[in-house]
Amino acid sequence: MALYFSEDFLQELMDRNDIVEYISHSVHLKKAGSTYKGLCPFHKEKTPSFSVSADKQLFYCFGCGKGGTLINYVMQMDNLDFVEAVKLLADRCGMELPEENSNSNDANTKLRQTIYKINSVSGRFFYDKLAEPCGANAMEYVSKRALSKQTVNRFGLGYAPDGNVLLKYLREQGFTDDEIVASGVVGRSENGDIYDRFRNRLMFPIIDVRKNIIGFGGRVLDDSKPKYLNSPETVAFNKSYNLFGLNIAKNSTEDYLVLVEGYMDVIQLHQHGVNTVVATLGTALTPEQARIIKRCKPQVVISYDSDEAGQKATQRAIELLDAEGLKVKVLTMVGSKDPDEYIKANGVGAYIKLIEESQEQIEYKLRKLRKNYDITNIQQKADYVNSAAKEFVNIKSPVECELYVKKVSAETGVSEQSIFSEITRLKKINEKDEEFKAFRKAQVQTTKPADMQKRRYDHAQKLIINIFSNHKSVSNYILSTLNEEDFDDQMRELFVVVKSIRESGGEPDAGLIVSKMSDTALAAEILHDDKNIDDPVLAAKQSAEIILNYKKAERIKAALANDELTSTDKLGKISEEISYERKGVEDGDN
Ligand SMILES: [Zn+2]
């Protein structure tokens, strides 16, 4: 039924309606880790078990098991059928429905596909030119910046020659002038002349998360202006909806993105193994980009230039990212203007250390906090000071801590000494908390063996499908270790879909997959967050082991039940089965 609308259309519909924003009109949602929690609107409850994931754009209730995409939510909430729900959402974001007998939407989709093709042909053309004698200048720049051959290939860098060479080439490939102009690689002057937009520039293809080249950036090789020139906005290229490098950074194993200013920063950092870096496309960060980042990673480290413009942009970016509920840290470089320069002077190791040490700006947090309280009211003033003290507990430098305490003291008239003793008190509570958690963890254990094995098996199936979908780096392992027979009836359908996407080299899109499943709720349960896995390889191996052992035990059980074994075999198998179940108890439930 979902196929009534094109995949493109549904994707755009889900991109333009944010699930968290939508649901929060009917459910009070609170941020909890990488997802939002609230009281389920579909069943009565007192403690929240309803979870919404912004990055996966899915919801799931651990209480009643309802789950799915925003479309499923609207269907169930408003009692609508699929088409009605799509209509409602399309209406809400001003998208026109594809009419049954009109082809306007189709025409747009078709033009977009043609533009992808033109961009792809152009990208290849630029890439080839870089190696030709005409590209010597660009090549010289590439080697001056110490970019390796591998980096050039990975980013598909190229050279746009002088004159109308590309235009001529594209015409020869059979594209019409209108199509070529629509792609933006050429421009059309007022008197109708068509000309190559990029001339004598080093070319950076801009690739979206679905691996289409959607536009180009071009850097001058001499002193002409502008230094960077980008493709204009087209049917396929919306600057505020894309980020340079996101196609690669999205798949990094880190749970954060590093946001830098320039293409060159992205490329240099990737070359040095920091592959979770993105840049905006020659404009300031937009709310849409913040939302897109939110869907990939829960955290952002801003690493803008250290000049005044960079610092101003940092403040703006903090506000936008924070508004989306992202955790924001700021990387501070001393002595260098940008990451590129910093790495040249200090090495990449030093830069990675800066990423690790980057912090949320206390100043910023304090300002935000301050807005929530009316400090002319005594109670609220006390609450403000206490909340501020909570933030100060985590400041490592005593000097910095003292400066902030002074600030809050001056602001509220509460003595520095009182604030300091509150900080000390909170530190003690934190220590006790840690002890208690460790104690509880040691305490938990005891359940029935067979139930426990089944639970472990279920859990492992869900976890490995989640990993399979989120971590490209382990997909080869999973493909070679498990097949659909290893999954039970319910999970198999989902495994098969993710498997076929992985086998074709694609990147699974949770929302789109769930919208196609027969059991959307189960699929949403499995895919609705990325579970914050530290070591996906290890987790995949452990899960695969549990799954394979469970299936093996099942086969033995079946053989015993059907009396397929000789009596000597039987004894061995029974003891194998017993030791397996006992192992389950000893391992405990994780
Ligand atoms: Zn529920």
| Count of alpha/pi helices | 26
Largest sheet: 5 strands, antiparallel
CATH topology of the largest domain: DNAb Helicase, Chain A
**Structural class given helices, strands, pairing?**
alpha+beta
Global geometry:
globular
Strand count: 15
Instruction: Give the termini distance in whole angstroms.
Output: 38 Å
Segments where pLDDT lies below 50 for 5+ residues? 585-590
CATH class membership of the largest domain? Mainly Alpha
Which ligands does the model contain, each kind named once?
zinc ion
What is the architecture of the largest domain at the second tier of CATH? Orthogonal Bundle
Q: What is Rg?
A: 28 Å
Strand order in space, largest sheet: 1-2-3-4-5
Question: Overview of this structure, please?
Answer:
By secondary structure, this protein is an alpha+beta fold. It folds into five domains: 2-92, Alpha-Beta Complex (DNA Primase, Chain A), CATH 3.90.580.10; 105-237, DNA primase, catalytic core, N-terminal domain (DNA primase DNAg catalytic core, N-terminal domain, Alpha-Beta Complex); 246-360, Dna Topoisomerase Vi A Subunit, Chain: A, domain 2 (3-Layer(aba) Sandwich), CATH 3.40.1360.10; 363-443; 449-587, DNAb Helicase, Chain A, CATH 1.10.860. The protein is 55% helix and 10% strand. Strand 4 and strand 5 form a beta hairpin. The chain is globular, with a radius of gyration of 28 Å. Zinc ion is lined by residues 40, 42-43, 50, 61, 63-64, 66.
